[in-house]
Design brief:
Layout (H helix, E strand, L loop, with lengths): L3 H30 L4 E9 L11 H7 L3 E8 L3 E7 L13 H18 L3 E7 L3 E8 L2 H13 L9 H11 L5 E6 L9 H10 L1 E8 L11 E5 L6 E5 L3 H24 L3 E6 L5 H12 L4
Parallel strand pairs: 3-4, 3-6, 6-7, 7-10
Antiparallel strand pairs: 1-2, 4-5, 8-9
Helix pairs in contact: 1-3, 1-4, 1-8, 3-4, 5-6
Length: 295
């Protein structure tokens, strides 16, 4: 673990960066994309042509002899939960950033967006176990602590088993929440099918997939030794072999298609993020498109 001053400096730097992103781009889109628990009564005003007659307050109308309507405001107070896959496969990255670094920025920005909107924010850092769980709470100090954990949480495991994390949430989260699952999804999706279905029934779930260009295409650079970050297993591959190149691309494309089909079948929103470009464009576009559903 780095010294306390180094930790604080890095956390503050990311905190400032994400606040700028949120203020400049994400906040309005975030608010429109995720609705609160319902509406609450705000005030009564005189009726004007075009108002919904179903909102007329008949008691006030009878008392004043003038038609009045009830006004309501959206009751926000959302629970937002971030599930962050910190397994070693996300340490990979060949473009603008490692997948894990990009995932941390996204998670931090979601946390700041939630807090600025007075929503509760929570975090679950997962490998093959629940490495860290922070229940949803409000406040800038809490979001700052959450960002610190995203950057510096010590991990006991390297491999992936998101089923453990989703089972944990199903038994822990009692109130309906918006749940973001940030992962490269480099595992058998069948392992999370049942707990994800249960989670989706009671919550609003969004999958965010982290991708790198080399997940789909390896350059011809001769004999290369590859190591599985999670298992430590090594294998030597001739990247100049056209059969290998063809099979690699085909397998990558099939895997990506399987992931899309998996989430589409479950009617769970899904965002693809690439390390080859800024993630803000794709997140903002998703928020805007989703916000249209509530108009």
């Amino acid at each position: 673990m780095p010294k306390a001053k180094q930790v604080l400096k890095k956390v503050r730097k990311l905190d400032i960066k994400t606040k700028k992103l949120v203020d400049g781009l994400m906040q309005g889109a975030y608010i429109s994309a995720f609705k609160g628990r319902g509406i609450e009564f705000c005030d009564v005003r005189e009726y004007v042509p075009g108002d919904d007659i179903r909102s007329i307050d008949w008691n006030v109308t009878a008392r004043t002899n003038e038609p009045h309507v009830k006004e309501f405001i959206e009751e926000r107070d959302l629970n937002v939960m971030i599930v962050f896959d910190a397994s070693a496969s996300a340490d990979f990255g060949t473009q603008m950033a490692r997948k894990k670094e990009q995932g941390i920025e996204i998670a931090a920005s979601l946390a700041v967006s939630a807090v600025k909107n007075n929503d509760k924010i929570g975090l679950l850092i997962a490998t093959s176990i629940v490495e860290k769980f922070m229940p949803p709470k409000k406040g800038l100090k809490y979001s700052f602590r959450l960002i610190r954990e995203l950057i510096y949480c010590p991990l006991k495991h390297k491999d992936t088993n998101l089923k453990i994390a989703l089972d944990f949430l199903n038994s822990t989260i009692k109130r309906r929440s918006v749940i973001f699952i940030i992962s490269d999804f480099q595992f058998d999706l069948k392992t999370i099918e049942k707990p994800l279905s249960l989670l989706e029934r009671k919550n609003d779930v969004v999958g965010i997939k982290l991708n790198d260009l080399r997940d789909f295409d390896i350059p011809n650079i001769g004999m290369v030794e590859f190591e599985d970050e999670e298992t430590g297993e090594c294998i030597t591959i001739d990247t100049d072999d056209p059969i290998f190149q063809e099979n690699y691309k085909k397998l990558a494309e099939e895997n990506q298609k399987k992931i899309h089909t998996f989430f589409n079948k479950k009617k769970i929103d899904f965002i693809n993020i690439s390390t080859s470009k800024s993630w803000t464009t794709d997140i903002h576009k998703f928020f805007k498109e989703r916000g249209k559903k509530f108009r």
